[in-house]
Write a structure and sequence with these properties.
single chain, three-stranded mixed β-sheet, two-stranded parallel sheet, about 40% helix
């Protein structure tokens, strides 16, 4: 997501918290914010949708779903520090329609649902897959170092996903305020979607 860390400690991140390029050692986020800012400044009728960690059916690459697959295969005995917000891909898809119909030009909208620790998220995944939950704690400094090294060496994707997750979340607040009154959110709630 292009939502940055909250300016005030102890506050949930919201749409006003913009990711600051270079604040995470992963070029992916720098490119995402550059594209968002270019689109918002284009003069076109654009809204920016900022999904958190998306999971659900149809992840054909898979992207975030690779993490779920690794847990289901028993390949994730470890967990990094940090917190995440997760959302169902079906709710994200519905939010795109709502934003196209009702979003306010130039606005940013967080598409998120549940705030939780990375360890809790990985534990829930393991339990659903009938696997042992992660038990080995990886400190933030180790995950960040591995992420930088994997990026430089262009190491395998399996290593890259956990280090990307750790770099994105390690030691940082990644909980989001998903309860703000937003037009696309109100529309979704009327249609029965509770997660947006």
């Amino acid at each position: 997501s292009t939502i940055g860390s909250p300016a005030q400690p102890g506050r949930l991140a919201n749409e006003n918290d913009v990711y600051q390029p270079g604040s995470v050692p992963a070029l992916y986020f720098d490119v995402k914010i550059a594209m968002e800012q270019t689109a918002l400044e284009s003069g076109l009728p654009v809204v920016a949708l900022c999904p958190t960690s998306v999971f659900g059916p149809g992840d054909v690459k898979p992207t975030t779903g690779r993490l779920l697959l690794n847990v289901a295969r028993g390949l994730m005995p470890f967990y990094p520090d940090g917190h995440v917000n997760v959302v169902d891909v079906r709710d994200v898809a519905t939010a795109h329609v709502a934003a196209a119909e009702q979003g306010r030009r130039g606005e940013r909208y967080i598409l998120g649902a549940e705030n939780m620790s990375v360890r809790h998220m990985l534990t829930l995944m393991a339990q659903q897959a009938g696997r042992r939950p992660p038990w080995l704690h990886l400190p933030s400094w180790l995950v960040e170092a591995a992420g930088i090294l994997a990026g430089r060496l262009q190491a395998g994707v399996e290593c890259g996903r956990i280090t990307e997750l750790g770099v994105e979340t390690g030691g940082r607040q990644r909980h989001h305020d998903c309860e703000r009154d937003r037009r696309p959110a109100r529309s979704l709630r009327r249609r029965g979607h509770r997660h947006i």
